[in-house]
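Example record

One chain of 185 residues, shown exactly as stored in the release files.
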Amino acid sequence: MKGKIRIIAGQWRGRKLIVLPKPGLRPTPDRVRETLFNWLADYLPGSYCLDLFAGSGALGLEAASRGAQSVLLVEKDRDIAQNLQQQLVTLAANQVKVICTDALRFLRQPPPSAFNILFLDPPFGHHLLAPSCHLLEQLGWLQPTAFIYLEAEQHLATLPLPASWQIIRQQMAGQVISLLIKRKN
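Predicted structure tokens for this chain:
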């Protein structure tokens, strides 16, 4: 059975996104997204965003709804990527693009451009966070003062981050930790 989540604010406020019933697909809850986008409110208009493990697309589409100039959704699962593509058509979201590929393989290639806002919410239990952080930092995916949102299992709160990353906000919701990080020049 398909689920739905809603876009909280912006041009698509109140619109429902279809979420496919796939194992491990866990959209970021409304309350957590609302807090995150309050933190990012001043930086979203005109931004270039990368939603690396897009899943439901809730983070990337919320960013686009709130004025991001360009959003790239990367999703490995073909069915989920096709669902995202259909939702882009429904929303007429011309500033959003979906790429169906493995995130780590994607990060090993030269970036199309550097991003200033990145959403990093990998599937839990697959050990993708550390290699993703390393590739993002080492291969030029981030602008000098980029913001990185990490969502992970609580026990990963002590994960060593790249030296140029500074945690500026964090919150806990159940067994999940959410971190907003600012990259230092």
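Notes: The chain has a mean pLDDT of 91.
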